[in-house]
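Minutes, structural biology subgroup

Action item carried over from last meeting: produce the structure token record for Thymidine phosphorylase (Candidatus Syntrophosphaera thermopropionivorans). EB confirmed the sequence was re-checked against the source entry. Recorded below for completeness.
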Amino acid sequence: MINYNPVELILAKRNGTALNEDQIRNLVEGFLSGEVPDYQMSALLMAIYFQGLNKEEIFALTKTYIESGKTITFPAELKVADKHSTGGVGDKISLMLAPIAASLGLTIPMISGRGLGHTGGTLDKLESIPGFRTQFSIEEFRKLVLEHNCALAGQSKDLVPADQKIYALRDVTATVESPGLITASILSKKIAEGTKHLIIDLKIGSGAFMPDREKAKELAELLISTGERFGLKVKVAFTNMNSPLGLAVGNGLEMIEAIEYLKGNPLKDTKILTSELTAQLLVSTNLAETAEQAIAMIEEAVKNGKALKKLEEIIVAQGGNPKVIDDYGLLSTTKYKLPILSPASGYVSHIDCRAIGYALIHINAGRMKVTDSIDHSSGALLIPKIGDFLEKDEPIGEVHCNDQIKGEEVVKLIQKAYTLSSEPITEEPIIFDIV
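Output recorded by EB:
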């Protein structure tokens, strides 16, 4: 039952007045029950976008989100950890991090999302594996995690339903990029799934939703301080999204790249990022004393095959075909592989990663709307990074697609995404900072 007039609360927030926990809870519960209509919640979200939320409001909203549904608990002796990425192009880090961390004794209840707009989604990549199941009840999910140290699944309708409904509204009302709303959305899901240690991969650059480093620092501080109040230990890594990560962009292609990593064939940027993020969790949970020791443990888990074996175990447990580990044709086979050639010679000075992500939607490697269908086999392999030198007509990579005409359009769009300079460009770091 609504105890407050929503119009008065919207007006108060619009004018910069902070809302208390009872008011926030009442509005959210009213929205879930249908007493507060979409248009009033949209108005409130826009007021929050412009006026912001203070730390007490963020805490109250996070708490309200968590208490809107069921929560998962794990035995106290388990070291329950997770990773969250703010999204990027070619970002398949979770596919390597989860099995590596689980093989080293961490418990990983990884609830992930689908790709939307220019960014890819972990669930779509996993679903390129024939039969792989990502939707479970909370009870099934918990059982999987306890039996295998890890499960990778989508958000259950019973877990943080308030965030699910409000996020859907934020997505269509241009109110996604609010630090307070982002903090409540990320942390509520991680706390509700039972996580105690969290590493956040906060991406900055042309392929990130947050290109500004100052805003990223503000968000990191809110994530760390809010997490602490819930007993969640949060570390934030500011990472580079000015070049697509790895070689592959596209669901099946990225799954292949992840398997190759676990077979001991990593690429430079994905190795740095996977190792550092996993190491932060190992140190946070006291499974390693130092980052150096943690990285040695990670390299050994890949070298001795434990991490790959854990991925195979997860695939089988979630109904997938484990033959994908040796037969990549099960993951990605397209009718056409179209070369992308450099239109000129020069040093790569800028890559419009966002444009690349949107270009690949034309061949159904991504989606604009949640209801759009995905072609798991399509995507691109992209070689150059910022600072690399390209000769005219040197391969930038290739587009994998099942529609040649659309594929040729994508080739042109990707060519335009690369800016070349006659002057040498300094190579950029993969990780800017960790706090």
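Discussion: The mean pLDDT is 95.
Next step: EB to file the record with the rest of the batch.
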